[in-house]
Amino acid sequence: MKNRIIYVSMGLIVMHLWISCGGKNTTSNVKVPGNEKGAKDKALEAGANLLQDKSPLKSFNVYLDGFHFYNGNMNAQMEAHHYVQQLNNDIYQAIIFDGNGEDAKLMGVEYIITDKIFRTLPEEEKKLWHSHHYEVSSGSLVAPGIPDDVEHELMEKLIHTYGKTIHTWHTDQENSLPVGVPMIMMGFTKDGQIHQQLIAERDRRFQISTIKKKQHRSDIPMPVIDPSANAWEKGDIRQFVLTDRPDSASHKQQHNIR
Questions:
Q1: Is the pLDDT of residue 118 over 80?
Q2: Residue in 178, 188, 138, 183 with CA at minimum distance from that of residue 165
């Protein structure tokens, strides 16, 4: 019966995304250079849309809106629009955009795993991941457009998960192209960390109340967080850098040939 409820809830999520305030109200942060698409390009897209199968994309059917900051720089914060696919009961993957309209730019990706999977990771790997306990309990992570009870059920599960997030296009810095180094992102863990103007602006656009969502979720039990997650809280920062030294690609190839 529990699984049936979850399946019905996911169906409601998909339906409500299209008939409520779950999209097309947040424009991209930047405009890209280049000429407008021509008639031939538009015709090619229309034909491809009719003829080609998009199976991997079809199952990205849950929309989450939240906030990230650059690992090592909490003052650099931004809103992130996640389109999520559930691979199984313990693993999700998300495509992240800087908006939810047709002009949205693909900003990065997030991999989400349950506590059971997270505790199997090596200690060094855990430092790249953040917990979702505060994002859920504070109301800052939302699933726009779905009924509160359905969202509550979704959050009951997400509160036990961890995310590994990488941004590849820093449109929050008004970069009109995906230049620079990909960056590891983190999630907030306490009150007073996130810039309140971000919350206020998001709430206005979606016509929601983060405070009311926090109150509505107060009955969700807080999990015990693995101390190796959110390593930035202890000053243990991991971030990408550009280098002229080769990585361990040859080593990877030797061990991953199948």
A1: yes
A2: 183
Do 85 and 59 contact (CB within 8 A), yes or no?
A: yes
pLDDT given for residue 224 in this prediction: 97
Stretch among 8-12, 138-142, 157-161 having the lowest mean pLDDT: 8-12
CA 109 to chain centre: 7
Cα end-to-end distance, the chain, whole Å = 40
User: Who has greater pLDDT, 23 or 162?
Assistant: 162
Please state, in angstroms and rounded to a whole number, the distance separating the CA atoms of residues 105 and 86: 22
> Can you give the pLDDT at residue 47?
74
Please tell me the pTM assigned to this model: 0.86
| pLDDT (mean) for 35-55 | 78
pLDDT for position 250: 61
Give DSSP secondary structure letters for 107-150. Answer: EEEEEEEEHHHHTTS-HHHHTT-EE-HHHHHTS-SB-TTS-HHH
Contact (CB, 8 A) for 140 and 194: yes
Average pLDDT over residues 186-193: 98
| Ranges of each domain in the chain | 60-234
DSSP designation for 69: E
Gyration radius from the chain CA atoms: 19
CA-to-CA distance for 112 and 90, rounded, in angstroms? 8
| SS3 annotation, 144-161 | CCCCHHHHHHHHHHHCCE
Q: Are 142 and 65 in contact (CB under 8 A)?
A: yes
Q: What is the spatial distance between Cα 63 and Cα 14, in angstroms, rounded to a whole number? A: 9
